[in-house]
Amino acid sequence: MSSPSSASRAAPAAAPEPTPSAAADAAGAGVANEAVVVRGVERIFTGAKGATVTALTSIDLTVHDGEFVSLIGPSGCGKSTLLRLIADLDEPTAGDIRVFGRTAKQARVDQAYGIAFQQAGLLPWRTVAANIELPLQLHGVGAAERRSRVAELLDLVGLTDFARNYPDQLSGGMQQRVAIARSLAEQPRLLLMDEPFGALDEMTRERMQTELLRIRAETGAAVVFVTHSIPEAVYLSDRVVVMSPRPGRITDEVDVRLGDAAERGEDLREDAAFFAGVTAVREALHGPQAAPASGGVRGVDVR
Amino acid sequence: MTTSTATPRARRANRWRAVLWGALGVLALAALWELYKLVGPVDGWLLGAQEGRTGSGFRLLPRTSDQAMPHTWEMFARIVEPVTRAPGSLPLGAVVLLAALVSLGVAALGWLVGVIVGFALALLMLGFRIAERAVLPFVILSQTVPLIALAPLIRNWGSRLEFGAFSWESWMSVVIIASYLAFFPVAVGALRGLQSPDAAHLDLMRSYAAGWWTTLFRLRLPASVPFLIPALRLAAANAVVGTVVAEISVGFTGGIGRLILETAVAASSDPAKPWAPILGAVVLGLVAAGFVALLAAFLSPFRRQETVA
To answer: Which residue of B198, B201, B208 to mutate against A (max A Cβ within 10 Å)?
Structure first.
């Protein structure tokens, strides 16, 4: 993965030049150096008949620049909601969110992040190349520059031969790779991913995980990755943030750091450190098996 | 949905097969007609008649007499014969064709007005939730008003319109009535189509900080095409039906609807004659449907189904 050829190929795609607005904002507050800073965030949904559901409460989270952080927890723990708040697809009821020192809304308007969902969400009437091009086109990037950037991205995700194909001609894994390429189109320093491999079969999934690590090593972007798979979180992350439901909150953080992202290979999945990480995250999720009654995590089914 | 794997040759073969089946269908219909004419009772079926009492019982149509059901070949032969015995009169077919062209023009105008109005309503309902709740019931209600009742009203209102050199012509009433029938499927279909993008696509556009209009042009409009094509086809059929019916009730002369009425009067002496303009109306509908199919072909890139991963 860290062969000279892939390193040299990374150079154009990874070019870590900050966008003009990022540079302007970066001067000043210390939080500007962090990719994401979440302080005291709460999200309460108001349903019909005034019933309220507390999806998230007192969330504090910092994601450093270039760090890979996974959010893990059972369904309903608000991990996707937290991601949507960071992406400014939803607004917190209370608390403050900063992305590279800017408000979440400003970060969205400035295109400070790229995003990928569980569904690839490709536009079926656009070719693979045109789908990757979409964000660039929407933001008025010139045709020549678009073409060269799309060529780079296609190369990065290994779909150069499929540039003119339509999404319905691709497998699920390939569609998801197109979606990842699209999320990288504007060279964001932050990637937000909501269970991007959740709909894929196990084999494709493992291959995509390794591929994501390679892409991430080449781009150096910070990643916030929502998943409900423990091995996936451990394999990918520098840090795993464990959440629990009713109300959704952060209960624990597990440092994994299985080594440099670029050097993680398939054999890592059979490494003792990997299993230790899986055990640590599992215990953080369910509480230590020995003492279920006194387990620190309330409201989590011990199954 | 055409699969992209089909070769051009296979697709051409498919098209010819479709034409063949269509022709067979027409022939089968003609054969059925002739078969019933052969075996069916001349005066139709008389049910529950009491012996010795004339005029008792129900008569079930159709009669198979030459007057009620002329032979199919007579109908076709009549098309090339002159309209009347007056010297220099055109063949019936030519008269039908001219009338059909007039009606086609009127129907096309009605379709266009209906599509524009329908689309504008759909956009309004898309943009404002309140508009959807306020307008949609009326859009649906509008289609329950009988067309025949509407025609004199529209002619009446139209005739009161006068500004400058403009004066209301009867064909305009026909256009309005045709558009009244045509706008409904477009309004409903376009609204459904514009609302069809799923949440992930809308989230994506939001994450790109794309505004309402950008989202409309880049996402909603392309996504609406698969819903729009059937709506446009329905609107075309409705516009043709509306035109034919409105011509009769408004009293607009020169179109195919009026010709159907006129030739029907001559049916007792010339039974094959009214079938020619009826056939003309059928062809008119086919041309309208063909036009929409042509439109659909141009929009085919937008009709790809998204396969879910």
So the answer is: B208
Q: What number of other Cβ atoms are within 10 A of residue B186's Cβ?
A: 26
pLDDT at residue B2, rounded to an integer: 43
CB contact under 8 A, B207 and A108: yes
Asked if residue B78 lies in contact with residue B92, where contact means CB atoms within 8 angstroms, the answer is yes
| HSE (side-chain half, CA atoms, 13 Å) at B62 | 13
Contact B208 A121 (CB under 8 A): no
State pLDDT tens for residues B17-38: 988 998 999 999 999 999 988 8
Low-confidence ranges of chain B (pLDDT < 70): 1-6, 305-309
DSSP character string of A182-238: HHTTT--SEEEEESTTTTS-HHHHHHHHHHHHHHHHHH--EEEEEES-HHHHHHH-S
* Residue B297 Cα, gap to closest chain A Cα (Å): 14
User: Least CB-CB distance to A138: which of B200, B218, B222?
Assistant: B218
Residue A123: how many other CB atoms lie within 10 Å: 22
* A87 inside 8 A of chain B by CB: yes
Task: Tokens for B11, please give them.
Answer: 């697709």
Q: Say if the Cβ atoms of B208 and A119 lie within 8 Å.
A: no
- Cα–Cα distance measured from residue B272 to residue B256, given in angstroms and rounded to the nearest whole number: 16
List of chain B residues whose C-beta atoms are within 8 Å of the C-beta of residue A168: 4, 304-307
Among B187, B122, B179, B121, smallest CA distance to B154 is for B179
Q: Are A41 and A71 in contact (CB under 8 A)?
A: no
- What confidence score (pLDDT) does residue B306 get? 42
Q: What is the pLDDT of residues A59-117, one digit of tens each?
A: 888 888 888 899 988 887 888 888 888 888 888 888 888 888 888 888 888 888 889 88
Q: Per the structure block, which two tokens stand in for B151? A: 């025609």
Below-50 pLDDT ranges, chain A: 1-29, 290-303
Q: Which residues pair with B46 in a beta bridge?
A: B59
Which tokens go with B171? 């064909």
Distance from A112 to chain B by nearest Cα, in Å?
10
The pLDDT assigned to A18 comes to 46
Three-class DSSP category at B242: helix
Return the DSSP state at A246.
T
To the nearest whole Å, the CA of A40 is away from the closest chain B CA by 23
B255's tokens: 């179109």
